[in-house]
Amino acid sequence: MQPAEQAAIDTQGEFDFIITLKSPGFKYVNIVSQVLLMLFLTAHFYYLIRIGMFGNHLWLVVIPLLIIGLWLYGWVRSADKSFQVNYRMELMIAAMAWMLLPLAKYHVIIGVAYAIMSVIERWVKFPDEIGFTKEKVVRNSFPKKKYEWFEIDNVVIRDNWFTLDLRNNKVIQKELDEPVSPELIAEFNAYCKEQLHFKI
Questions:
Q1: Which residues cross the membrane (predicted)?
Q2: Which range of residues forms the domain containing residue 55?
Q3: Where are the beta strands (DSSP E) in the chain?
Q4: Mean pLDDT on 49-71
Q5: Whole-angstrom distance, CA of residue 188 vs CA of residue 10
Q6: CA 177 – CA 160 distance, rounded (Å)
Q7: Where a domain ends, among 78, 107, 124?
C-alpha cells in the first residue's frame, strides 16, 4: 500500500489509497520472450550474411545491436530485485524488422505474431494495483476495471492479505506486494468500512 500522491492508477484523478498486490513470477513468460528474440537474431544475422553485411546495408546492423543492448540493460538491472525486466520493446523492434525485411517466407505474419507477443507481455506484466476514492474503486488491469461502492460487499486487509468481495459473488483475494504497518491497515479498513456503510 502506498500514499496516493506517490503512485496513480488513473492519471486524471487522485486516489485516497492505492493497494499494490503481489505479482506472480514471470519466469516462463521471460523464457518465451528470450527464445523469440534468439530466433529473430539468428534469422536476422543470416539475412545480413546473405546480402553482405559490409555492403550498402550497414544500417541493418543497428537493429540487432539495439535489441542486444536493451537485453543486456535489462539483464544488468535485474540484479535489483525491485526492477521488472520487460522484453516488449525488443519484441516490437523485432516485429517491425520481420515485417519490413524478407527474413523468412511468411515474414509479415511472423512480424504480426511478434507484435502480439509484445502486447501480451505488456498485459501479463501489468502492475496489479487497486485505487480507492470515495466514489469508486479502480483496478489497474488491462483494460482497467471500475467498481462503484454499491457493487462491493466488503473490503479488508488482514494478515497481509487483501480481500474484496463483490455483491455478484466474485472475490478478489491476493497477498500484498509488501508488508504494511498495522496503523495504515487499520486506517484503510476503517476508510473502506465508512464507504460501505455510507453506500448501503
A1: 31-49, 58-76, 96-117
A2: 27-124
A3: 2-3, 17-20, 129-132, 136-139, 145-148, 152-158, 161-166, 171-175
A4: 80
A5: 19
A6: 9
A7: 124
